[in-house]
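Same chain as my last thread, 189 residues:
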Amino acid sequence: MIAPKNDRGVVLWLTGLSGAGKSTIATALEPRLRGLGRRVESLDGDVVRTHLSKGLGFSREDRETNVARIAFVAHLLQRNGVTVLVSAISPYRATREAARARIGDFVEIHVAPPLEECIRRDVKGLYAKALAGEIPAFTGVSDPYEPPAAPELAIDTSRVSVDAAVELVVDRLRALGFLELHPTATATP
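reply #2:
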């Protein structure tokens, strides 16, 4: 018997440029979803690179391998009823589509402020180094980022607060049937 959609796991794949706000939204979304009764795990691209994908570089092949590894782990969690928050640049559309095909219950969220906003937010100075040619193959500067063709949700974090972004995601999950409209309500006979 297949579980109702709102009892099944789902992968929320937050994609966008460095500094877009993917991890910030995921961090704020996690307790909100837990409060709605969901089991939640986060897979942050930077953390995964440190532990699961250590040794990979930033060639297209290595980036695709990293995303495939994230998708594999996300699918394992998702098929066991977990809501998985993936926050990873994942620059290539085909690689994200392969993740969608593997996972099934997949909600793509394009975190999409303008590049100038990402540059302004960059506390590590990575964009400055990339623009100066010190970092070759930096996504969005000297390496491509392919925006999603039809994400389930797009959020411009230069115009939307973190709290509002969280509510947009929750509303979208409800509309897609992954969250009950009234999780604390009980049915009356």
